Amino acid sequence: MPSQLTPQDITYLNELAADIAAHGGFNGMPVEEAVEAAHERRQAFAMELAQAATKRTQMARRALNTSIWITCQVIAAKERLVMQASDSTRQFFLECDFIESN
Question: Which CA distances in Å does 34 have to 1, 52, 75?
Fold first, then answer.
């Protein structure tokens, strides 16, 4: 494991932890097995999602597309604000990352 985790690594580990919790915790398994099982479930769902063969994956794709669309709208709105702002306000907007952070 790398000595320095990226934000993406931390996000994925949090998702694995949520998956483990959603499936009842460790249930007597060692941590490594529980993490591996969670990873396998997520990979299986990703493959299912790519095929969009079930109602569950169709709903997940719709939710994902909506989330992406909303993010794009927020970024576009920020860009419009920056373009319409005065020089000092424009600099403030350019330095603000909080609008795009989760």
Answer: 17, 27, 37
pLDDT tens digits for range 24-73: 999 889 999 999 999 999 999 888 888 877 888 889 889 989 999 999 99
Dist CA 70 CA 35 (whole Å)? 31
pTM exceeding the 0.85 threshold for the entire prediction: no
- For residues 61 and 83, is the Cβ–Cβ distance under 8 A? no
If you count them, how many residues does the chain have? 102
Residue 39 near residue 17 (C-beta atoms within 8 A): no
The C-alpha atoms of residue 52 and residue 38 are separated, in whole angstroms, by 21
Computed on alpha carbons and rounded to an integer, the radius of gyration of the chain in Å comes to 19
Find the DSSP H helices in the chain. 7-22, 31-51, 55-84, 87-95
Between vectors from CA 70 to CA 66 and to CA 71, what angle results, nearest 5°?
Answer: 115
Number of C-alpha atoms within 13 angstroms, CB side, residue 71?
A: 10
